[in-house]
């Protein structure tokens, strides 16, 4: 992480006093013990207490906090519910951590326009709960949806088990209210379809808190499908399950969701929720289709046929909604369930072409043997978004470092086969120094320039996304003349 700025730390008391003039006294947290809950996010391997936490309650307060910090050159780290799995909300020792937890109102629901306007602290699941009485729901459904906030979903472009058919956050957000680092309040998008001009909304969704602080989100809500049915398919191994996934998509079928778990994950999930998963299979697919009843019947029959052609040994179709939800219960609880297999696990997030799934799973098994660390696979099979869970024991010296390197090799493998470093968890700190595996100098230069257009002083969420050794030259802090650096012997990405 960036080296703490000594001059900022010296004026901590002044910063605290200034923040208490903007927000309520109790909405500034500066006691060291009270700061502990904010020292990490979902990537708990990395942690450090923030300098202080500020909890604004209005857009005007957010604007005033950012304006003051911009004037005084104080760094700011935005934070939602803290469920990020890539270190995206990891605080800095010399930064104000700006928590949006008090922004939890559903401002408006318009069923005719099929939109909801919500504040960023509203949880993902709360949107669906607010509209389901009228037969609507919000489609993106990450496994952490009971806790993760919509503002964090926007920052990371979160997905979920139904993103295959209905898209990720970026496909379901119509507009945002954004406060820039200098305190300016802007609106991007709105109730309408895509506006003319630059797609700034598309830039902000998935920008990981680097460009501005989201204070309001307009999302698309959808009518609940007439029928939804789930199919539970067991296979002898992950390779044949992967081949089934590829064939389903190749034949033009787009399920509402298609999820896979390998044997360790199956056993952990079944022991955790006891929903009747088969324990004698090497891989499990959960496939859901929705729409008119006749369409669902046809698709279920087609998927059943394809599964048989790929040597499925277990085939169960849900007979009612309760059974369908039970199929999903294990998948939704897979991450906490796997936590029972080892003292610690490291959750990865990479995306690959579907056709390479059998090959990648096989190579991951080889890597597991090489590193001597077990891995449980839980992932969105339909769109190739992998979530390997590397099992380790942080109390054993060197095991965390070994797990990190194992994870790095998985992500390098994803890029090697034509995939990308992340599908929905973001880059954050975790994948920051792997960015050159995927992007060249020109790519990174343009990303830096975009960041600078929104935040010229680089005060918002520093230390995330951009590789450390690349930063100085791209930010103009190293003079480059005629393409030549002053110190060419220094390694650079």
Automatic annotation (TrEMBL):
<keyword id="KW-0560">Oxidoreductase</keyword>
<dbReference type="GO" id="GO:0003973">
    <property type="term" value="F:(S)-2-hydroxy-acid oxidase activity"/>
</dbReference>
<dbReference type="InterPro" id="IPR036318">
    <property type="entry name" value="FAD-bd_PCMH-like_sf"/>
</dbReference>
<dbReference type="InterPro" id="IPR016164">
    <property type="entry name" value="FAD-linked_Oxase-like_C"/>
</dbReference>
<dbReference type="Pfam" id="PF02913">
    <property type="entry name" value="FAD-oxidase_C"/>
</dbReference>
<dbReference type="InterPro" id="IPR016171">
    <property type="entry name" value="Vanillyl_alc_oxidase_C-sub2"/>
</dbReference>
<dbReference type="InterPro" id="IPR016166">
    <property type="entry name" value="FAD-bd_PCMH"/>
</dbReference>
<keyword id="KW-0285">Flavoprotein</keyword>
<dbReference type="InterPro" id="IPR006094">
    <property type="entry name" value="Oxid_FAD_bind_N"/>
</dbReference>
<dbReference type="InterPro" id="IPR016169">
    <property type="entry name" value="FAD-bd_PCMH_sub2"/>
</dbReference>
<dbReference type="InterPro" id="IPR051914">
    <property type="entry name" value="FAD-linked_OxidoTrans_Type4"/>
</dbReference>
<dbReference type="GO" id="GO:0071949">
    <property type="term" value="F:FAD binding"/>
</dbReference>
<dbReference type="Pfam" id="PF01565">
    <property type="entry name" value="FAD_binding_4"/>
</dbReference>
<keyword id="KW-0274">FAD</keyword>
<dbReference type="InterPro" id="IPR004113">
    <property type="entry name" value="FAD-bd_oxidored_4_C"/>
</dbReference>
<feature type="domain" description="FAD-binding PCMH-type">
    <location>
        <begin position="46"/>
        <end position="224"/>
    </location>
</feature>
<protein>
    <submittedName>
        <fullName>Glycolate oxidase</fullName>
        <ecNumber>1.1.3.15</ecNumber>
    </submittedName>
</protein>
């Amino acid at each position: 992480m960036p080296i703490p700025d000594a001059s900022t730390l010296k004026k901590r008391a002044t910063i605290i006093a200034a923040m208490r003039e903007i927000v309520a006294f109790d909405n500034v947290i500066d006691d060291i013990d009270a700061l502990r809950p904010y020292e990490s996010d979902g990537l708990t391997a990395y942690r450090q207490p923030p300098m202080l936490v500020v909890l604004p309650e209005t857009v005007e307060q957010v604007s005033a906090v950012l304006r003051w910090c911009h004037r005084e050159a104080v760094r700011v780290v935005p934070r939602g519910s803290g469920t990020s799995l890539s270190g995206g909300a990891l605080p800095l020792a010399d930064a104000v951590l700006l928590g949006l937890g008090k922004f939890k109102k559903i401002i408006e629901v318009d069923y005719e326009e099929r939109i909801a306007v919500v504040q960023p602290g509203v949880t993902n699941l709360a949107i669906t709960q607010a509209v389901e009485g009228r037969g609507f729901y919000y489609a993106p459904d990450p496994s952490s949806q009971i806790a993760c906030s919509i503002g964090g979903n926007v920052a990371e472009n979160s997905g979920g088990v139904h993103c295959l058919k209905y898209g990720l956050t970026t496909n379901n957000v119509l507009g945002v209210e954004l406060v820039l680092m200098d305190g300016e309040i802007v609106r991007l998008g709105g109730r309408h379809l895509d506006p003319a001009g630059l797609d700034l909304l598309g830039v902000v969704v998935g920008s990981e808190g680097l460009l501005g602080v989201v204070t309001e989100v307009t999302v698309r809500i959808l009518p609940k499908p007439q029928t939804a049915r789930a199919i539970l398919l067991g296979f002898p191994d992950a390779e044949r399950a992967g081949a089934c996934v590829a064939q389903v998509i190749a034949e033009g079928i787009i399920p509402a969701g298609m999820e896979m778990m390998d044997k360790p994950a199956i056993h952990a999930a079944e022991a955790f929720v006891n929903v009747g998963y088969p324990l004698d299979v090497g891989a499990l697919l959960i496939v859901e289709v929705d729409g008119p009843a006749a369409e669902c019947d046809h698709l279920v029959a087609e998927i059943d046929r394809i599964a048989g052609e790929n040597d499925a040994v277990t085939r169960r179709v849900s007979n009612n909604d309760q059974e369908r939800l039970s199929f999903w219960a294990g998948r939704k609880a897979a991450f906490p369930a796997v936590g029972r297999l080892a003292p610690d696990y490291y959750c990865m997030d990479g995306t690959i072409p579907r056709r390479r799934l059998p090959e990648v799973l096989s190579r991951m098994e080889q890597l597991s043997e090489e590193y001597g660390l077990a891995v449980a696979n839980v992932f969105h099979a339909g769109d190739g978004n992998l979530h390997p869970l590397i099992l380790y024991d942080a109390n054993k010296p060197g095991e965390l470092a070994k797990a990190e390197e194992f994870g790095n090799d998985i992500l390098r493998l994803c890029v090697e086969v034509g995939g990308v470093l992340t599908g929905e968890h973001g880059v954050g700190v975790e994948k920051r120094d792997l960015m050159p595996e995927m992007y060249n100098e020109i790519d990174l230069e343009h990303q830096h320039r975009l960041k600078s257009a929104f935040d010229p002083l680089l005060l918002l969420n520093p230390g995330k996304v951009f590789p450390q050794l690349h930063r100085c030259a791209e930010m103009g802090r190293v003079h480059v003349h005629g393409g030549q650096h002053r110190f060419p012997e220094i390694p650079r990405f």
